[in-house]
Records
---
Amino acid sequence: MFKKRNVILNSLLVLVLLVGGFFGYRTLYPAAAPVSVRTATATIQDVTQSVSASGAVQTATDIGLTFGGTGIVRVLKVKVGDQVRAGQLLAAIDDRSYKLALLQAEQSQANAINAVTNANAALAKLTAGPSDATKALQAKQLDAAQTTIDNANTAYTNAQAATKATDAQLALNAITYQNSVDRTRFDFEKKCNAIGGLGDTNTVGVDCSTAENSRIAWQSWQDSVQSQKLSLIKDTTTHNNAATSEENARRAILAAQDALSTLKAQQAVTNAGAIQSDVDAAKATITSAQRAKDITDVQLSQAQFNYDNTKIIAPISGTVAAVASQIGVNAANTTAGSNGAAGYIILTDLSGLQVKASFAEADIANLQVGQAASFTFDALSGVTATGSVASIAPLANSSAGSTVTSYTVLFTLDGNPDGVKPGMTAQVSVVTDQVTGVIAIPSTALTQRGQNYTVTLKPTKVGGVGKRVTVTVGLKGDSTSEITSGLKEGDLVVLRSTTSSSASSGFPAGGIPGAGFGAAVPAAGGGGGRASRGSGG
């Protein structure tokens, strides 16, 4: 009776726990209310992909013009804003000291030319030829040198044969050494097997290198291995000695050939008809005179350059952007600068403005020289311009402490937009790819898993589950993506939520298909629901 009452009480307790757990769960995890979804329509439209950056307006050409030396400015024919033409005199400094230096350099060069002429004439007088006795001696010397070469060739041939014989003997030695090692090893393994070692799985802990019956055989094997190593070292030395002898013989041939070449060169000098020391002295005189003339040539060129550069001549037509000082001031004490150019006078070309901007490495691969670009200007509301990519820097910009890699891109502007001046900030946009008249949807409707994309069609009823459709994506634009298959014009697709903080599960935000569209998904362990979202296209 007592046992039956305990069973009833326990059953009632379990029932109470089950009812309480059910209501507690429904309180903590109430059923999700139906939610409305954001949708978009697949339409025929253009898809554009672009990159953008901020840059600065600059002139196409800034040239800093300076004098070739120092001096007081005596002539100044321009002021800031003047238009000048190529070849026009702009300014000049006092040139009297430069003129004197030029005259002195011209005289030094004339003297050097006379010295070279006289040295060549002296060498031409040395025309004496060799006697018959000298010619006979030269022939004997040539024969002796040739005999030395022949003997060296014979010695080299013998050395090669000796090397081959030595290598053959050493090969036999190596076989003998290995046979000795193999025999002692075989004897050791035989005795080791006899006492249960070396593969005998029934015997444990037998060390054949110290066991009484195999220790001597093991030592003999080790001795033969050591002997083999020492013998091979010795044989290597023997081989090296033979090879050295062969190499020495080869070098002897080269030395004999060099000696013959030297002898022939010496005889050629002797047969020139002059004492070698006189010829060398005459040649040295010519060389010295020519070097002196070369120096005076450089000095004259420098003096001419300095004199010519006492004047500043406009190399191009343009506008005077800056002038460092006025007449009467030493030109070396003042410098004007503009856009990186520096000099006494700065010329600029305002007819062709440019924009220089830095693009991130992720965007630079999509840029090419010649691509069209559009511009706006921070300081000029409503002013726009067009242009194109002129150049792309091959090297990345260096910036201490920065983790962002960027590249400098130079753009040319089409014409000169009203009000745009060098130094203004410009916003650049470049269309890198575009397709027209294609089916497209907002990129936020796409869910990507690996290389595959899907979209969810709008549910047929509130709270329902939309059908997931696999699509093929063409061009992915700035905000929309081209759909080449899987959708037709007019299809309604669900836009992914941008407020979910959970990791992408490959499903669009709002729930897993089958759990009710927009329904919460309980986390592992029943700890509450969270919405999943796919990775955006």
Note: Residues 199-204, 499-537 have pLDDT under 50 and may be disordered.
---
Amino acid sequence: MDIKRWWAMFFAALLTVAAAICALNIVVDPFGVFGDSFFDWYAFNMTKNPKAAKISYLNANYENYNAYIIGPSGSSSFLPEKLNEYTGLNWYNTFNYGADMAYTTQLARYIADNFEAEQFLLILPYISAAQYDMPPKDATEWYSPYISGGFSSWFKFLFANPRYSISKIRDYNINGYLQENFDVFIPQSGVYDKSSRDVEPIGALSDYAPFENDKFSPQSLVEMENCMKDVKALKALCDEKGIELTIIVPPSPRMRLDEFSKEDIAEFYSRLSEIADFYDYANFVPDEPRFYYDESHFRNNVGNMVLADIFADDSIYIYKEGDDPDSLLAVLLYHHITTDGAGDSVSVADFKEDMGKIHESGYTPVSLKDIENYVYRGAALPQKSVLIRFDDGYTSNYELAYPILKEFGYKAAIFAIGVSVGKDTYKDSAEPITPHFSFEQAKEMIDSGFIEVQSHTYDMHQVERLDGDDCRKGVLQKDNENEADYIEILRADFARSRYELEEGTGHEVFALAYPYGLHNKLSDVVLSQMGVRITFTTEPGINTIVKGLPQSLFNLKICEVSGLF
């Protein structure tokens, strides 16, 4: 082979490889810059590079939005749906990784020039004045070609390392319902998908290690001049375009605040106040690690508190300095009550004795609404609170327990199996079961003000002896069930349980006790998304519920009567 032919073949091979990489990156489009028409998976694209992918998403969907949140990743917990509610506008959260006012200003200019924008919300943490115009480390930080401009910007994405496209193909084939580390965004709003994090149980403050000093190092706000120059430019842009600008200095944990000198912080505020009015929430909840996902990101609930405070919304709890935001809650679990305590039942005498001990020990029975109002609205709760819980919905709860509860003036919650309401046989069989109360009896108890009747699922409290080999284990997915089918079945089951209970009693269903206490992250997320606000397990322990953190009402534990008194 002569040298000319060899070089020709070599360059042909190079061109073939280059063309293949180019075609792969256009079709797979791991950063979403080419429209992602094949996969249409912007949750992945934004995870890889939110700067590039969000601009492409907005170019295709800009008509749905007219107000924008701009700032670093800590901005994610300011939810567009809350701002929509307060302002009547249609918000999108454009946050990106890192804190860089140089990029934020360019982004704002692009939005103002290309989309309808009535309002900007700028999230401006102290760190914004410590770094500026940071060069991208790799393709995950490249600017969108629509912002940076020029052929070279497009060229970079065309010939980006093919591992990004390969990882998208791989992850697409293993992607499930729950958020994974490769799809952490909700494209329609631009925020992080915290559906899994927001159902994780929240415990006592002592269970949470404080943020460690050695994770942080002192920083100087060396880019103060550039930061404030761009804030001033952003203000001028908004004045020019008739865009309302709101600025929030967001919450930070104590360790983050202590990274900066008092002198730097004072100058930050002094310089900012010369440019525009702003809301200062930097010290909002600095010493409460439960209010943070990690050392840099406060929870969505905290973002909701800040917005509620700004918009004078007193319908939700807003943390105030000095608040003691948590309370202990004991849950006592009963099932069947009988006159003699035969089998697994509790006798009337023993039940009445337990109720007497509650009074003697200084405990106060509370309702589901009481604990919900404590967490969501900051309402008062007795110092020693106990929730009396009954599972299954037996007639004995109505005939024997209910009169005793009324006698003591106690509240209780009963979780009824939907398929068994009013029945004394198992489902459609002739197999006798312990009788269950009717909707009429449930309504009578609820209307008394002493009892709440909630869901124990419709037909997921199955019995292997009666349901056979295909018996479901509580709400868990069966081995032979794919995820999509399982989610549909779980949704349909709870929807029917809720509908029939609400139709039969005229009262809202918002809580669920897991049959046999079995659950997992998938069931927690699905039911939370369906509006379930309180769930119960059979795990032993005393609960800590926290004002402002609704997830502290998930997966509540139970305690033995003997362990309470």
Note: Residues 463 and 469 are 10 Å apart (CA to CA).
